[in-house]
Amino acid sequence: MKLLMIFTNRFAYKPGIKTLESVDDIKPDKVSFKRAQTAFIQVEEADDDSNSLKSIETKMVKNLKWIARKNNTNLIILHSFAHLSESKASPEVSKKLFDNIETRLTSAGFEVFQTPFGYFLDLYIEAPGFSLARVFKSF
């Protein structure tokens, strides 16, 4: 599991190319957020084991809660970013993990959004330059 957390003053996306036929078609509308903790997440093939997946889910939630609080935001964006490693888990495992993380963070009082899964997106990122604005974790 790879996790790149970037605090953004502004994070926006516009759906581009659909990469998974199994996902729903979506409108190509631009979506924008202010003061968001973004999480660029790569689920790896080794994470596909249900025992390690639960442990990774817990670590991911703890890290996201910690960094969002440090950066004084309640808004977390989950973005599937399959470019942090050469190893990839199945789309089904990745999506399930994203949904579980969203549920747990929402239950903890955070506002959580997922970028469209199974799409390449045009990304618009405005990120400040301070020490906890960019944090990388590997589980």
* N/C terminus separation: 5 Å
Q: How many β-strands, per DSSP?
A: 6
CATH architecture heading: 3-Layer(bba) Sandwich
Segments where pLDDT lies below 50 for 5+ residues? Answer: none
Largest sheet: 6 strands, mixed
**Order of helical and strand elements:** EEHEHEEE
Q: According to CATH, what is the class? A: Alpha Beta
What can you see in these coordinates?
The protein has 139 residues and is an alpha/beta fold. It has a single domain (2-22, 31-138), classed as D-tyrosyl-tRNA(Tyr) deacylase (D-tyrosyl-trna(Tyr) Deacylase, Chain: A, 3-Layer(bba) Sandwich), CATH 3.50.80. Helix content is 27%, strand content 37%. Strands 1, 2, 3, 4, 5 and 6 form a six-stranded mixed β-sheet that branches. Helix 1 (50-70) links the parallel strand 2 (31-42) and strand 3. Helix 1 packs across helix 2 (91-107). The model has no long low-confidence stretch (mean pLDDT 93).
List key phrases describing it:
27% helix, alpha/beta, 139 residues, 6-stranded mixed sheet, globular, 2 helices
